[in-house]
Amino acid sequence: MSDATSPDSLWTHPRIRSLFLALLVGACFVAGPSSAIAAASLVNKKAPEFVRRDLSGKLLDLARFRGKVVLLNFWATWCAPCQVEMPFFAAWQRQYGAQSLQVIGISMDDDSAPVRKLIARLKLNYPVAMGDEKLGASYGGVLGLPLTYLIDADGKVRAQFQGETDLKTVETHLKLLLSHP
After folding, report:
1. How far apart are CA 152 and CA 158, in angstroms?
2. Is residue 15 domain-shared with residue 96, that is, in the same domain?
3. Of 136, 159, 170, 172, which sits with the fewest C-beta atoms within 10 Å of its C-beta?
4. Residues 46 and 4 in one domain
5. Which residues form the domain of 107?
6. What pTM, to 2 d.p., does this model score?
7. Per-residue pLDDT tens for 12-21?
């Protein structure tokens, strides 16, 4: 084998090295902890519509929030990372609500009693509805919690975060969506 085609010489070739680094950076961006993507990504697709009653009894129709940026968060009371991020979502609702943000929580618990207790303890200021397998399936399968979607004013999913996520990354995406109505 000549030196020009040996495996060691390929790593020293500038184009091969650049291609490898670009692929590595891209893989880290897609698979990194701050942007873990569920298997069935909905990014750049229309968000599945749903109509539910929230826990206060009000009708919660995703279509009614057209024109707003929606942070849609699937969670459960037993999920520790969920409980960490929900107070941030409540703070963002207060901070960015006037800029057309609407946070919506979907609890994947089986019973609403512990959900109501947690909502009261965390003083959540956004609607929370109970989810089920059908709603989860419409969002590609809720295979891990938390699962958060950022939906733009036109109803398209623009970001999807699964698992424990860097909240600064989520807020950066959120601010970008709010600044481009």
Report:
1. 6
2. no
3. 172
4. no
5. 34-179
6. 0.79
7. 544 443 433 3
